Amino acid sequence: MQKAQSKVFMYLILVFSSVFIFNLLGCSSGKPQSIAKATITVWHWMTDREPSFQELAKRYEAKTGIKINFELYAPSDAYTQKVRAAAQGFNLPDIFGILGEKRDFSSFIKAGHILDLTSYMEENNACWKNSFFEKALAVNEFSEGNSYGIKAGIYGVPIDVMTIQMLYNKNLLKNLGLNPKNPPLTFQEFIEIGKKIKAANMAGLVSGWGELWMIDCFANNYAFNIMGKDKVLATIRGEVPYTDPDWIKVLSLFKDMRDSGVLATGLVTMVNKTAEQLFANEKAVFAFNGSWCVNVYKGMNPNLDYGVMLPPQVSDRYPINIWGGAGSSFMVNGRAKNKEEAIKFLQWLTDRDQQAYLAEATNNLPANKNSISKIPVILAQFANGMDYATHPSIWGVSEFSAVIEAWGQGIQSIILGEKTPEQVASGVQKIKARELAKKRNRNP
Amino acid sequence: MKFKSTLENYLFVLPAVVIFSIFYVIPFIWVFQLGMFDWDGILPTKVFVGLGNFKEIFLQDPNWWQAMRNASYITFIALTFQNALAFLLAWACDREIRLKNFYRVVFFIPPVLSEIVVGMAWRFIINDIDGANIINRTLMNLGLGQFVHNWLSDPKTALTTVALVHSWKGFGWGFLIFLAGLQTIPRELYESARVDGANAWQSFRKITVPLMVPVIVLVAILTILGTMQAFVLIIGLVGGELAGHTSVPVLRILASMRGSSRFGYACAQGITFGLVLVIISFIQYRFSKRTRQI
Q: CA torsion angle for A92, A93, A97, A103 (degrees, to 10)?
């Protein structure tokens, strides 16, 4: 009896093990799914735009019968991980966005995850292409002979545009005895205001400098202003060292700002959300932030009286450049079943009326230049900065990640008073030399 | 017959072996294999670099070793301050004191809270720029204005502040285990000692501590493994690595994977870190065995 029970138990174990293994190996029989009407799935990370996207999805379904399934994955870090994991498992949705550098964008294209949209953009005398701001499209474009080895073309659709600039609180400037209609135009004026801020025991500049990319962005603005685009790009290519006097001058600006007192306490541990709260609550005179902040500040303090300005210039030799271009873009999955429907939806989404609705509802700058007339004044100030906008994605070359990290951390060390600009420049150059040597060894 | 019996035995352990292999052995081998490639996690092609990633970790990555030093420092504080506090409180609660059940519950609240919540809450308590600045205000009210400080943004104090908050959050686990260990010590031993004229300190030194050694070793192993892998609390408190001053190995692995898109290198870092933890656990296991023999 006991033997028989043991046998039954053994067989049960065998059966359960087999079922378990087959299930894990994906051998279970799946039921065929019948799709009556196409459903387009869109993955995004834009929490503030979610209600507007849902509204637009409803409108599109009412118009075409095609259901648009917007799926929000936030925060952006979690979204990035989800997209990467889905790419590895070939489970990307019909439409998605990429958060990362141009290098990552090119990897997705090389892996076949992103559809080349050039032919669609060029249809009907390039009607779709021409509706966008040139700089918004440039972020999604790969030019002929690009260093990433990607076939020239357009691979993404910009949904909105952004610029990252400086903001000033008009009331706090008034409290400092300054005219809010005349924000500082030169770096020296900015430093002088810093001294007043320090004397008044107020917080000066706030920004998300705990996140390295915003420091990199700020420093880059001044690198362009001090040495010009060509020299910056030559440095990235490895032709000019970071120990060059111009780069040391860029780093010295952070020392000057620290010494003057224009930087808020705790800036190097500050995430951008904290910086936004401080500026919105009128606890800081200046902020360095992107145009997305208009919506954020409106939510936090609708009465906030502030203005937008370009970072105060150090030199007259070259114009100051700010980071700007496509704020967020959508790509079409190269392996999606519903490619054509997905493209049609993106054409509709970026059409004038939908873009105007998005701009009005979310306070983001529209990517469609025909929708710009209806935007609020403060957003128009951000839009004016588009003339000065540039972005690493359109430079055609990209810096090593290790160098960017060392650069950002080095600037943090200067602000903390631990290192001199010369020490940071020397450290960054060492890492640059190491990365260049490694690249040469791998691609002799 | 013997073969059938052996087969039966193997079949009984088969499900466990299959699950263990699928969820532990295969991923480990896969991660080790990925550690030998230069890969960004997206491209279908990977460049084989052999042990190049491991060589870079050991010889060319000072940030990694700074992160290891930082994690070791937090672990040292946890091993000493956190566990001493846990042991003392457990010892106090093991005695006949009023409200001891209430204290047990209160001491166990921090460990069950989410790390990110604890980080944000303490940031609010400590920070002067985006928080209530309670610590500095208290110091001012006590006339200790000279000690007012930017605890989290000063690299000299940030890591220690992180370590102390981590200890506050973690001592409840040690407290519970120590308390359970203390309750297994026969009360007769204390009574005999008292009859023989031993005072409280002598009983603690001669009875409690020797009998608690295996428990102390267990708590030490758990503390090291838990603390070396801490990172969420740091994100909540400091927001990041503060120019490397609050970086820890897991944050470095995340930076390689997300910031630099170096998936292969991140895998190599993960394997290296895992091996360090295995070696520490092994040493402690040997130590624990030896103490049991004593």
A: 20
Q: Is A204 helix (H, G, I), strand (E, B) or coil?
A: strand
Which pLDDT value is given to residue B129? 63
Q: What is the mean pLDDT of residues B44-65?
A: 91
Query: Which tens digit of pLDDT belongs to each residue from B198-221?
Result: 898 899 888 998 899 889 988 998
Per CATH, the homologous superfamily of domain B61-293 is MetI-like (1.10.3720.10)
- Angstrom CA distances, B27 to A333, B7, B43, stand at 28, 27, 20
Q: Which residues pair with A42 in a beta bridge?
A: A70, A95
| Residue (of A123, A368, A153, A166) closest to A262 by Cα position | A166
**CA nearest to B48, candidates B58, B62, B33:** B33
Q: Can you list the alpha helix ranges (DSSP code H) found in A1-114? A: 2-24, 50-64, 76-88, 102-110
| Domains of chain A with bracketed CATH | 39-161+327-386 (3.40.190.10), 163-324+397-442 (3.40.190.10)
Rg (CA), chain A: 26
- Say if A122 is an interface residue toward chain B (CB within 8 Å): no
Residue identified by tokens 């519950």 is: B105
Q: In sequence order, what are the beta bridge partners of A96?
A: A331
Measured in angstroms, the CA of A354 and the nearest CA of chain B are apart by 33
Q: Are A162 and A139 in contact (CB under 8 A)?
A: no
Whose CA is closest to B64, among B242, B273, B277?
B273
Q: A198: which 2 tokens?
A: 């320090």
Q: Which residue in chain B is spatially nearest to A277 when comparing CA positions?
A: B130
Surface of A (76-115) touching B: CB under 8 A: 77, 80-81, 84, 87-88, 100-101, 103-104, 107-108, 110-113
CA distance B240 to chain A (A): 6
Bridge partners, residue A165, by sequence? A289
Chain centroid, CA B125 distance in Å: 23
pLDDT over threshold 90, residue B228: yes
Give the pLDDT confidence of B121-171 residue by residue, as tens digits: 898 888 766 556 788 888 888 888 888 888 888 888 999 999 999 999 999
pLDDT at B85: 93
This prediction's pTM: 0.81
3-state DSSP assignment of residue B260: coil
Evaluate whether A70 touches A62 at the Cβ level (below 8 Å). Answer: no
DSSP string, A284-310: EEEEEEETTHHHHHHHH-TT--EEEEP
